[in-house]
Specification:
Blueprint (H helix, E strand, L loop, with lengths): L1 H6 L22 H6 L7 E4 L6 E4 L1 H12 L7 H31 L5 H22 L12 H14 L16 H11 L2 H8 L21
Antiparallel strand pairs: 1-2
Helix pairs in contact: 4-5, 4-6, 5-7, 6-7
GO molecular function, one term: transferase activity
Organism: Klebsiella pneumoniae
Pfam family, one: GST_C_2
Amino acid sequence: MLEELLALGVSGAEYDAWLIRIGEGDQFSSGFVEINPNSKIPALSDHSTTPPTRVFESGNILLYLAEKFGFFLPKDPAGRTETLNWLFWLQGAAPFLGGGFGHFYNYAPVKIEYAIDRFTMEAKRQLDVLDKQLARGRYVAGEEYTIADMAVWPWYGNVVLGNVYNAAEFLDAGSYKNVLRWAQDVGNRPAVKRGRIVNRTNGPLNEQLHERHDAPRL
């Protein structure tokens, strides 16, 4: 979101991205808990306000920034509501994809057939819902790129592109043609490419930027 705002020339969207090493328990430090008492990433502290405003939960961060800067959230009631429909759809759906399917299919040390089957069925159902929606327009909430796309793409876009869980073939991702078209479209946005490397600590070295404090490095 912040990279998209910077691409539009919104200077007030300059930001620092600190690396929180969850494997080392950084999320339980007193400083982080002051921002997000639930000890989960991401979290945001807006120091342009007095006192600083804490914002946690990814959907709320997107909504906060969209309202603060006036971009990526339609102004008309119908467009705004449709965007929020899909933003909140993602908040409810993603745990089944990540914590459910992704965990049992790719990460669990013991493969449990029932769990894999159960969450595979749900992941494919969700992809079908999204595919039918994307048959209606270029982006998730219509013809305009919004915070709904920013919320949904890291989960479902990355799945069909084969970037997470090693599951694109298993899920028959190619059959969700509208999702795949949209995933490629969004993934090719320069701001998305820049944002994906921020706080990344794996993969090719040229695709890692552990912390972001110097805009020219992007």
